[in-house]
Amino acid sequence: MHYRTLFSTLALALGLSVAPAHAERVYSVGTDATFAPFESLNNNKEVVGFDADLIKAIAQKSGLKIKLVNTPWEGLFAGLNTGDRDIVIAAVTITPERKASMDFSEPYFEAKQLIIVRDGSKVAKLADLKGKKVGVQTGTTGDTVAQKAFGKTSPDIRRYENIVLALTELRAGGIEAVVADNGVVNNYLTNNKNTQLKTIDDTSFAKEYYGIAVKKGNKAVLDQLNKGLAATKADGTYQKIYQQYFGR
Predict the structure, then answer these.
(1) Are residues 61 and 130 in the same domain?
(2) What average pLDDT does the chain have?
């Protein structure tokens, strides 16, 4: 009898568990799968999209083993602090406020806010929306933009769980405009014909950059993410994924 078999037999006889000496760490990656084309659920309830493909490529190149976990936006960042999530990738804009409570990878995507209104609207810029009902997704940079323009407690800012709900309300006439990231808005308009909606590019909106978030001080994982991200850009993987979702 081999020694390993003998040990296993004795362990079972003594009621002991036989487990591998070392189990590879699986990192929990939180994402809010309501933000196509960055993250959404397919028919099999699997997280798919630009962010999903990118983090898988980054993990493969950096040696990280990951598991994507669909998480409501409101709980994403709290999950980092409690340890329920090790990594967050969810089209998260890097801002000074967020950097105070979490660490970010190097930027991986450039974005900008857009104003969406119904066809025929005379709105031409954000200032034109003063006194009008404006929809945003709770806790996003669109929410921040609206708060800065109209006040944090403005009753005219209507918050929604996701952008699709806000755009649906806009189409129904319940609000006058939506402020949201260009990537998700353009994807919605491409995949939903005859919406009778149009976009407005306010030149006062600054460029934004998405980053992958980790718990404050988690330098080890952050370094691996940056290493993997750099590798995807160096060998063309990033560009292939980008072209798949954004076509340029």
Answers:
(1) no
(2) 92
